[in-house]
Amino acid sequence: MPRHHDSPPAWLNSEAITTALGRQSEPDQQVLKDILDKSLALEPLGLDEIAALLRVRAPQKIVELEAAADLVKQKVYGDRIVLTAPLHLDSHCESDCRYCAYRSGSDQIERKRLDPHEIREAGKKLIRQGHKRVILTCGHSEQTTAAYLAEACDILSHLSEGQGEIRRINLDAGEIEPQEYAILRQADAGAINIYQETYSEEYYKKAHPKGPKSNFARRLHAPEIALESGMDDVALGIAFGLGPWEFDLLALSLHAAHLASACGTGSRVLNLHRVRPAAGCSWKAPLPMNDPDFIRAVAITRLAIPYAGIMLATQEASNLWKEGCNTGASQVLTGSLANPYENWLDAPGEKIPFPTGQETHLDEVVRILLEEGRHLPSFCTACPRLGRSGHEFIAMAEQGDIKSQCGPNSLASFLEFLLNYATPGTREMGEALIRDRLGTMSAHERGAAEKLLQKVRAGRSDEFI
């Protein structure tokens, strides 16, 4: 039977969060060191410890905090940054989220749902950029069924173009019925992204006044139901600016901890985005977040929940996502939407075309990461292809096995991109980075990496250990 929830779950202890945030004193140097040492030992932080990090204000202490977050990320994942592209399936929506271009109350955008042929064409265009991972996004609509999403997964999972293919498909499916999650699981869908946006019920209701997504309690329960219904992984997320960001960050940590306790696995990925101006929306975020607080939030999230992937988006103003990669982020959503949909940008009348403009070419993102010189762009999908998901993935991360395999596998997947998709300048920079990374590896890792790289240079693809 479908499960419906009329009240927030017990784990969302708003009183405990408010009490933790009510303390005013900045932690002294010893207290800060003790908390950072716990994070560096890869132990999740408790509510009071996270709240103490939120009270850090001294510039030098913030530097220490952000440096520790980077070290935690390096311990778990190494220096890689996983790259993913969104693929928008439809803009029909029955929810009236006030910050979203596809909100039901807007009459300024073109409404469209991709048919199978268009899904294939969009997938091929992403493949031609070099993408291996996609996130399928859609609105809340009765016509956008689990069967439709499963069909899209099936189309993309069997799609190839030249040397490329889509190897990992995640979905922004939101809160649906248990039997619908089961349909998606059977279609080999990856993680289900269910972003709470804000954990403050007061602010949530202001931002989501009507439609399926307006049910605050149902949204909160959805990730647990998805896992109980057979999904291997869920991804949580915050839209900073909708509610008090400190409250949201503490609630996110409680949510991840609850999933780990109740379901044996926490959130595979934490999506940290800020509300940005949306086409056709005049509404403004009630509590906009500044750049320093955003970077601090990324760092504290990494320290608080060390094993989760943290995803940022290239749509962040002033390329702030680059700085976030230096303070704990491990994944980037590239926003490569303009190219996949270039044939469909002629909207009828004066309406804003589908999808709304988010233009970032993959080669550009890779080049930026290479220019930074610290991060290895990664297209590796070894874990999902080997069935490493949920508690198995977390267990490997806790034992340090993810990092030891990520290095060689990421180099191989990156070389595949360089040889088949990169512009000449990007390829030259990428080859230099590969030589540099080989020089820093242990003898065992380097041997494994060189074998994989040799296979890729010989024309092989999808090589991993």
Description:
With 465 residues, the chain is of the alpha/beta class. Helix content is 47%, strand content 11%. The chain is built from 18 helices and eleven strands. Strands 1, 2, 5, 6, 7, 8, 9, 10 and 11 form a nine-stranded parallel sheet that branches. Strands 3-4 form a two-stranded antiparallel sheet. Strand 8 (269-274), helix 11 (291-304) and strand 9 form a beta-alpha-beta unit. Helix 1 (14-22) packs across helix 10. It is globular. The protein starts with 13 loop residues before the first helix and ends in an 8-residue tail after the last helix.
Short description:
The protein has 18 helices and eleven strands. Strands 1, 2, 5, 6, 7, 8, 9, 10 and 11 form a nine-stranded parallel beta sheet that branches. A two-stranded antiparallel sheet has the order 3-4.
What is the topology?
Layout: H1 14-22, H2 29-40, H3 47-54, H4 59-77, E1 80-88, H5 116-129, E2 133-137, H6 146-157, E3 160-161, E4 164-165, E5 168-172, H7 178-186, E6 192-193, H8 201-207, H9 216-228, E7 234-240, H10 245-263, E8 269-274, H11 291-304, E9 309-313, H12 320-325, E10 331-333, H13 362-372, E11 376-378, H14 382-385, H15 390-398, H16 401-420, H17 424-440, H18 443-457
Parallel strand pairs: 1-2, 1-10, 1-11, 2-5, 6-7, 7-8, 8-9, 9-10
Antiparallel strand pairs: 3-4
